[in-house]
Amino acid sequence: xxxxxxxxxxxxxxxxxxxxxxxxxxxxxxxxxxxxxxxxxxxxxxxxxxxxxxxxxxxxxxxxxxxxxxxxxxxxxxxxxxxxxxxxxxxxxxxxxxxxxxxxxxxxxxxxxxxxxxxxxxxxxxxxxxxxxxxxxxxxxxxxxxxxxxxxxxxxxxxxxxxxxxxxxxxxxxxxxxxxxxxxxxxxxxxxxxxxxxxxxxxxxxxxxxxxxxxxxxxxxxxxxxxxxxxxxxxxxxxxxxxxxxxxxxxxxxxxxxxxxxxxxxxxxxxxxxxxxxxxxxxxx
Length: 285
Ligand code: MN
Prior knowledge:
The chain contains seven helices and 19 strands. By secondary structure, the protein is an alpha+beta fold. Strand 1 (2-6) and strand 2 (10-15) form a beta hairpin.
């Protein structure tokens, strides 16, 4: 099932070229007004997968405004340096094995067709195309074998990153720095998340082309590892790291990330609010 949020938080399912409005079904199941995020947090996706689409209102997918499938997760847990080829291109001595995971602010999420707002005119900000894992069931100290049982589904994510000197979590948490979507593809449709082709284009030029098979920490290992540190709750998001091919963004750029079986996410880039790095607020003196 490919679930979407559209037209101001309406709950939908993609069926071919149409979006089916699931609002009536959710209400009949005792969840009137439920958003996709409500369903995930309530661990209700298995119920929703059994809902019949017969007789429900439908709209052509091009006639609705798709939104981020989740907009305020409890947390976004992200893997730094989870592909060797990306480690090599950045000439970093360390990987996820040494760095562990970090947190990205949930307030940085935007949806398909939205714009990334570049903070600085004179400091590089890069695109990082990544597979996102959406947690569907509370996970604490889970084993590798049980890890995927805690996944609700998958979606596309861009981990936008400014290459300045501040802490990683800040450089990746500016508002608009986590484009997400368009669909939440339920876990039953992705038999092996560690075998998906991931590609990312900027202005139609291919920058990233890799397989999630090349991740240093696989999806189950990332879940097991993260859950050994903190409790993963339904609705939390894991960003699994980016392959080689990151590069600088400029105002007017169009970014597209496509992941096999998961979807295709497109966003724009704006430099309208960018300032010189030296003009950022600082402590006096
Ligand atoms: Mn990243």
